[in-house]
Every structure is written in structure tokens, then in C-alpha cells.
Amino acid sequence: MNLDADKIHTLVFSSKKQQDIEHFYYDALLSLRKKYPNKLNSISVIQKDDVDLVKHYQIDTFPTIIVLNGQKEMVRVTGERNVDTIQKELEAAYSN
After folding, report:
1. What is the pTM of this model?
2. Phi then psi for 64, rounded to 5 degrees?
3. Could you tell me which residues are beta bridge partners of residue 59?
4. Of 47, 36, 40, 56, whose CA–CA distance to 12 is shortest?
5. 3-state DSSP: the chain helix, strand, coil percent, rounded to 5?
6. For residue 63, what is the DSSP state?
7. How far apart are CA 44 and CA 55, in angstroms?
8. CA pair distance 96, 92, nearest whole angstrom
9. Tens of pLDDT along 75-88?
């Protein structure tokens, strides 16, 4: 995965078995995208069967969102959460 060093990247790790809770993550991202359009222009959805990336980022819970500044991890949100909690946890990364 080619990640620009001077850019914010949002990686969403998805599993077909967890789609019933993943919509909370997407709703939070859509809401944050309205507030931070310049920082949420690089969103990648990575499926559970992309074993190399799942292993590289040490993903063991789905869904997971990782926000990177270049290749440096800024925040990681995992598992079942509500929209407000996800937004609050991600907001710190996008507001800087």
C-alpha cells in the first residue's frame, strides 16, 4: 500500500460477518468528512481476506479503523461502538 508521507490516511478493515455493526463506522466517517473534507479524502476499505495488510497492521478485531499520518498511526478504533464514540475517538486525529 502506497501511503504519501504528508497525508492523512484512513484505513477501514471490514469483514462480511460484521456488516451489521460496520455501518456505525461509515456513518461516523461520513459525518466527520463534512467537517474535515481535506483530511478525509483518502479512505481505503480493506477486506478481512487481504491477509497481508491485516497481518501488517495487526488487525484481530473487525471492524477496525486506523488513521495514519503518513505511515505513523495516530488513532485506532476497534470493535462494536456507537457513532458518537467512534466520532469522538477519530476527531482528535482529524482536528490537528
Report:
1. 0.91
2. -140, 140
3. none
4. 47
5. 40, 25, 35
6. S
7. 16
8. 7
9. 999 999 999 999 99
